[in-house]
Structures are given as C-alpha cells and as structure tokens.
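ugh ok fine here u go
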Amino acid sequence: MMRFCFIAIAFVSLLVACKKTKPSEKTDVLVQVKEQLLTRTEVESSLPKGLSYSDSLLYAESYVKNWIQNVLIYDVAVRNLGERNKEIDKLVEDYRHSLVRYRYQEQLIEEKLSATITEEEEKAFYEANREKFVLDEALVKGLFLKVPVDAPSLSDLKEWCRSGSESSVEKIEKYSVQNAVIYEYFYNRWVDFAEIIDNIPMQISNSSDFLKARKMVEYSDSSYCYLLNIKDYITAGNIAPFDYSIPQIKEMLINQRKMDFLRNFENDLYNSAIRKGDVIFFNAESFSEK
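structure:
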C-alpha cells in the first residue's frame, strides 16, 4: 500500500513539476514491469478533469495498481496458454482484417458515393415499394394545446379549436404565447398519433375507433385542460403517405447505393486481380470436381 501511495505522490509531483518544463523520457516513467513501461503522460491523459489533489492521488494509485496487475496477469497467461496462443493470434488477425476492411469501405463510401437523392428517385422508390411503408401506428394532422384550467378566456379557446379556421388558428397562436404550456400546430404535416395522445392523461383502447369517432378532444384534470383538433388521420395498417415516408425512403436508398457500390467495387477488384495474374489457383480442376 505504501508503495502505491509513493507512486501516486510521485505522479502528482511530476505533474506539478512538468507544468513549466517538458519531462524527459526518463523522468516521465513511473513504473516498469519486465519490459513494459507506464509513463506519467499516460496516467495524466486518463486523469478526469476537476479532481482535487487528494482525489488525484487516489485515482493515480488505483490506475497504477490496475496497470501492474494487468501486465502481470497477461504475462502469466501468455506463458501458460501454450498452443492456444496461436488460436488467439488467429482471432486477433481476423479481427484486424475485418476492422481494416470496414474502415476502408467507410472511407470509399465517403469519398466516392454521393448521398444526394432527387425527389424523382424518392417518388419512384416509394411507388415501387409501397408495401414497405405500412403504418404500425396511426398518423394525424391538427393542433394540440395544454393550458392551465384557470387560464383566461378558456371557453373562447375551446371555440377557436373547434373551428380550426385560419382566423381561429391566428387567435390560438397569440393566446398560446401567454397561456399555453404546450402548443403544437401540425395541420401541414403528419405526426404519430401516439406522440400527441401521450400528452393527454386519458386511456384509449383502440386508436382507429377513437379517430373515426372524434374530430375534437376536450379533456381536463385538476390542473390542465387538453385540446386536440384532428384535421385528418390515417389509421394503422394503411400505407404511409409519401411526405411522411421521405426520411425512411432516403435511408433505404442510401443503404441500397452503399451495397451496390461495395458489391461492384469488390467484383471489380477481384476481376482486375485475376486479369493481372495476382491470383493463382492451384489444382483448380480437382477442386471444382469436389
């Protein structure tokens, strides 16, 4: 324990001493275990910001102790695993190959693949794949308000919401600036009905039946009044409209482009290597017979 305290204090001392001067390679070393070295720089880079002097000592002590234990355990493991080391080396090499390939593919896609997709492409994909855009949840257009039950002119607000006219919406917007806790206007876009209804503390057993039966929702509890005007809706099980599906369409088209690009790149690379003679098949005939 005293040994680790000494190391921790030495670390903090080095840290303070090296604020004005660059440490030499020798003074930067804190611990050596066999051929492995732990430097002050490594411990310093892992040190969380904002620690007090005493917390820095505790952190450095723990870090150094863990580092020493890891080095010792690794050394014992290498000496005792024997032939299984070859299996581990193979797994590490396979992982390295996969990681290098993945990183390079990412780089290729970033350099070569344009993510720009035209509206015509989006519409064509949507029309050809409408079955992929079946709704799991209902969609609605409308407006929603949550206001305190003691808010002024609440009866007027309810009437404006029932109307839903352009002039009424203008009045609602002005009213909401001063009084609404939540005001959502979505007459011009589709939103998930579940996201809206989650703001109202009422139970709905079947969203389709609910939407077919009601165009206006007025609900109050002890604190708030909730108002929902439903201009239009699409129930679950129907095809999502094009404008609502655009983000999903873009993602699907980009992923398709990526797969096509990588497939072509791999095939071109393979065929080019065959033509150049970089790939040599041995006993190809006997292999094909099997």
